[in-house]
Amino acid sequence: MNKRISAVLCTAIATAAVLAAPTTAQAADPHPTFFVISADSGILLKFPTPEQPKGLKVHLRPKGTSTPAATLTSFSETERCESMCDSDMPEMTKYLTTGPLRLADLGQYAVDVEYVGTEGEPVLHKDRSALSYVPRPVFEKVNYSNGVSLAKRDAVVSGDIKIYDPRDSSLKPFAGGTVTRRIGTVATPVTADAQGHFESKVVITGSEPVHEDHIDYGWYHVHVDLATELNGAKEATHTEVNVNSVRARITLDSPTQTGAYATRGKVGGTVAWESSDGTYKPAPAGIAVKVGAESVNTDGSGRFTASPKFLDDKPWTVVENSPWLYGSGPQVKVNTTAGTLFTGFTAAVDKNKTVTVKAQFDRGEIPAGTTSLKVEVQHSADGRTGWTTRKSVDVTTRPGANTPAYIESTLPYPGAGYVRLRYAGTKAIHGWATPAVKVARTMTAIPDFNASPEPVRKGRTITVTGKLTHADPTWKPLAGQKVQYYFRPAGSTTWRFLTWDITEADGTFSQTFGAEVTGSWMARYEETDATHFFAESRVDEVIVKP
Fold first, then answer.
1. CB 266: neighbour CB atoms within 10 A?
2. Given the DSSP bridges, would you call strands 331-337 and 256-260 parallel, antiparallel or unpaired?
3. Could you tell me how many helices (H) and strands (E) the chain has, helices first?
4. Residues 444, 469: contact at Cβ < 8 Å?
5. pLDDT tens sequence across 480-539
6. Residue 235 near residue 139, CB atoms below 8 Å
7. What are the angstrom distances between the C-alpha of 67 and each of 30, 148, 488?
C-alpha cells in the first residue's frame, strides 16, 4: 500500500496556491470583518483598526427595496459596556456611532456599510444589520415601597411605561400596557392604567434568590425583573428590594457526634426566626444553614439535616447562612476516631497488559503503635462480588494524623473486569475501599503471517503478508489500523523497523521488499488505539541465495 503523496499532486497544490495568492496590484477589502449594532438611538460600528475607514458611509434601506432612504456620513466615538456592566469596573469598548437617527418613516430597514478599498474602489457590505425603527416602550420612575424581611414580607413595586417615538424622541403613556414582573423563575403579569402607571404587590417567601450589593458589601436585595413589549420591541429593567435580616435561633437534636475519620456524621435540628412580638416561628423552606464546612437548606417546617465529614476533633459550628437571618451559632462537640480514606483513584490498562492503579491514601487519628497499613489491589469480574487480592502495598503510617500518601502500583492484566484499592481495617481503624473501575482492552492477534518466496535469489522481491484480528467478542478482522514491518539480518539480535501499513477491510496487510540478505521478518501492531492490546506476528525466516 502506497503511503506517499504523488509528485504530480504536490505540484498541483503548489500551483493552485500561487494562483490564489493576491498580488499587490489587486484591490482588497481593508476591513473584511467588523461589527454593527443597530438601534434608533444610532448605528454603532466596531472595526479591527482604531482609524475610521476612509469614505465611511452607512445606508439605511427599507426592507425589500434597493434604494437607501438615508445615508449617514458623520460619526463620533462612543463607549459601550461589553461585560461586567453592573460592577465597579465594567469592561468598555470603543465604537463609532452615527448618533440618534431621525428618519421620515417608521418601519424595518436594512443596514448597508460602505467605505473605500485599498485601490480607491468602493467596498459595499449589504445587510450587515437590521434596524427596527418603530415606537418602543421605555420604563420610568421604577421603585419599591420598602425593604422586606421574614417579619414583613410584602412591598410594592411601581413605575411608568411610556411609548417612545424615534422620529422626534417624544413620549406618551403606554395605556393598558402589560408588564411582566419576575422574581427568580416566578413571573406575574401586571396591567398599566390609562396613564401608563403600574403597581404590583410583591410578597416574598424567604426562598427567593438573594444578591449581595456590588457596591455596599454586606447589604442584600431581591431582584425584581420587569419586562414589556410593543411592536416586537422589548424593554427590560429591574429594581432591587432591600432584604432586612431578623434574629435566628437554631436548636440541635444532639450536641455531640462520634464517628471514624473520613466518615460522615448526621446533624439535625430546627431553625426559627424572631417575630415582632418576641415569639419564634419556623424558618421557611430554602433557608441555608452551614454545619461545619457543609451547607444545607431547611424544609417547610424549618428542619435541616447535614452530614459533615469527621476529620478531627474540632467542633462543628452550626450557623444560619442566609441574608434573611442573623445571630445564631451553637456548636456540636466532635469525637473523631481512627480511620482511612482513598481519594483520586484511577485505574487503567496499557497496550502491554499492565494495569496501573493510583490513589491518595489519607489516615487520621491512628492509634499508638501503628507503623504501617496494608493496602490491597483487588480484582472482580463484575465489580460487585468475588473480589480477590492480586497485590498488597505497605503504606508507612504513624500514630495520630498523617500526611496523605500517594499510592501507585502495577500488576499484570488479570483479565476483563474491575479493580479497586482496599484497606480492610481493624477493630481500632476504620477501613475503606475505592469505587470499582473497569479495566479492559480487546485482545488482538496476527494469526496469518508469511514472507515469501522461500528461498529467494538476491535482487528479487520478498512479499510480506499478514492479517490483524481482534476478539470482538469473537475473532474478527481489524481494519484501518497501523501495522509495522521489522527485519532482523541473520546473525543479528536487533530488529530494524522498515515501514508501516494500514490494514484493509478484511484485516490484511501486504508489502514488497528487495531481497538483499538472509534474515527474519516480523509484523507488530504496536501503535494501538485506547481499546486494543499490542500484537506480534510469528517470526518467518527467508534465505537469500546469491
1. 12
2. parallel
3. 1, 46
4. yes
5. 999 999 999 999 999 999 999 999 999 999 999 999 999 999 999 999 999 999 999 999
6. yes
7. 25, 57, 80
